[in-house]
Design goal:
The chain is α+β, with helices and mostly antiparallel strands and 194 residues long. The protein has 2 domains: 1-30; 32-193, Cyclophilin (Beta Barrel), CATH 2.40.100.10. The chain has helices at 2-22, 25-31, 56-67, 141-145, 158-165; strands at residues 34-41, 44-51, 74-80, 84-87, 117-120, 133-136, 150-156, 169-172, 175-179, 184-193. A hairpin with a 2-residue loop joins strand 8 (169-172) and strand 9 (175-179). The termini are far apart.
Length: 194
């Protein structure tokens, strides 16, 4: 009886050492497929956790644009407070950049258009997303129903998203809700992987 109790204490100690040394297996599973991207903007930095497990095609597409430096020097060209901020396709003079082909829609991945979630902007065709993305300023459950694919979440810099959402906007040619003073993405880069 005494031996059994000591063996149990010993095994519990070994398990604790293994968890401390190697980490908990469930923690590893929860962190797989996530990459951090920092958007350095003229209003401050936004760090996004990209979910490659839930949205593999969308995440790979976004990360390729990041790695190519595509987003550097682009703007948030559509800003609607209490809705979202949209960017990733236009230069400060409102010239649209050339993109790679559109991707398949991954809206049915379980991720929701909640405050701080990043998702793909697109045309009416669900499979028309290319480079443009938006960050939800508030919970937008209606966008889930409409099939807009979320692929990550802001983990730092929601105060910057809030600041961008408050900028004065107007009409620029055929475009509405354009910031009067350009909000520029100075750089977009992968800052860590888990």
């Amino acid at each position: 009886m005494k031996y059994g109790r000591n063996l149990g204490v010993y095994l519990l100690g070994v398990a604790a050492v293994m968890v401390f040394t190697f980490g908990c297996p469930t923690d590893k599973r929860n962190n797989e497929g996530r990459t951090m991207v920092k958007l350095e903007t003229t209003k401050g930095d936004i760090v996004i956790e990209v979910n490659k497990t839930a949205a593999p095609v969308t995440a790979a597409n976004f990360l390729q644009y990041v790695q190519d430096g595509f987003y550097d020097g682009t703007i948030f060209h559509r800003v609607i407070p209490n809705f979202m901020i949209q960017g990733g396709g236009f230069t400060p003079d409102m010239k649209q950049k050339n993109t790679r082909p559109s991707i398949v829609n991954e809206a049915q991945n379980g991720l929701k258009n909640k405050r701080g979630a990043i998702a793909m902007a697109r045309l009416n065709n669900p499979n028309s997303a290319t480079s443009q993305f938006y960050i939800n300023h508030v919970d937008n459950a209606n966008l889930d129903k409409l099939g807009y694919a979320v692929f990550g979440q802001v983990v730092e810099g929601m105060d910057v998203v809030d600041a961008i959402a408050k900028v004065k906007t107007g009409t620029n040619g055929m475009f509405q809700d354009v910031p009067v003073e350009a909000v520029i993405i100075k750089s977009a880069k992968v800052v860590s992987k888990k």
